[in-house]
Amino acid sequence: MAGVGFQRWVRTLSKGKISGISGLLPACRSGEILTYFPINIGEIAAAAKKYNIRVEDYKPIADNGEGYGDYPQLPDRSQQDRDPAYQWDHPDLRRNWNEPMHWDFDMFIRNRVDTSPTVVPWSTMCKQLFGFVGFMLFMFYLGDKFPAYQPVGPKQFPYNNLHLERGGSPDVEPEEVKNYEI
Amino acid sequence: MADYREAPLATRPKTLDPNEYFNLSPDYRRAEAERAALRAGLKRQYQLQLNNPHRKELIEDPALNRWVYARANPYNHFKATKKTSLLGALFGVAPLFILYYVFKTDRVCYGGR
């Protein structure tokens, strides 16, 4: 709680000229750095103007200490979801120059996460996937329970059931093993 | 298609969006007009810079600069709340102790053989 009061004090002190390291960066000099979460109408209007959003549309990301500052919460739509026929300034990114970027813009590029509407409804997708997987699982279970294979007998070996190979002495006459029937 | 339900986290096709057909109030239209005006202003700025024959440098994109700066400097606005402390403990502190314990016991097992 004391931290919040200290932050406000620092904020009011530092309003005005930007000094120190921040003054050297071109983004900071033109006043484009990420500032603190807006608390009054003046700050909200300034932030909306900075990000080129309507004041009514500007909604900062919730202030829960995760470091968003006054960055706006834009709709979570991927770039693939945008109109392919419109004349974008950057057609591969489907974005116009100086358009406010989503916080997760690098996630929403067309190579990555895609939120565009699905071709079939969610229920159809669920039914198809779980139906197929469930059916296959059930059939494999049945196949395991009721195996079906060619009838087999014990393997037959030549040379009197491999008498010498199995360690039998060459002097002893092995018993005659007949594995066939004519 | 009356029972079309979009996938979670996906959007609805524009042709199935009820706003397209039922939201025709003047306020909504004025809002759309204001948004279009903002967009047109930005487009105009870009085109002026793009087609300026005396321009020798790259066109700087302020929105990109803001985004890069915002993504690179979240700690300036970090606050130690319950959620952030829990996340920090789960991902930063706990793995250290867990991995130390796992490696230590594993090594001892092999050493004993």
TrEMBL record, chain A:
Any coiled-coil regions, as ranges: none
Superkingdom: Eukaryota
Region described as Disordered: spans on this chain: 64-84
A Pfam entry, by short name: NDUF_B8
InterPro entries according to UniProt: NDUFB8
Cellular component, GO annotation: mitochondrion
Matching PANTHER family: NADH DEHYDROGENASE [UBIQUINONE] 1 BETA SUBCOMPLEX SUBUNIT 8, MITOCHONDRIAL (PTHR12840:SF1), NADH-UBIQUINONE OXIDOREDUCTASE ASHI SUBUNIT (PTHR12840)
Protein name, UniProt field: NADH:ubiquinone oxidoreductase subunit B8
UniProtKB/TrEMBL annotation, chain B:
Coiled coil region boundaries: none
Keyword Zinc: no
Annotated membrane topology: Single-pass membrane protein
Job of this protein: Accessory subunit of the mitochondrial membrane respiratory chain NADH dehydrogenase (Complex I), that is believed not to be involved in catalysis. Complex I functions in the transfer of electrons from NADH to the respiratory chain. The immediate electron acceptor for the enzyme is believed to be ubiquinone.
Subunit comment: Complex I is composed of 45 different subunits.
Protein name listed in UniProt: NADH dehydrogenase [ubiquinone] 1 beta subcomplex subunit 4
InterPro entries with a match to the protein in the record: NADH_UbQ_OxRdtase_NDUFB4_su
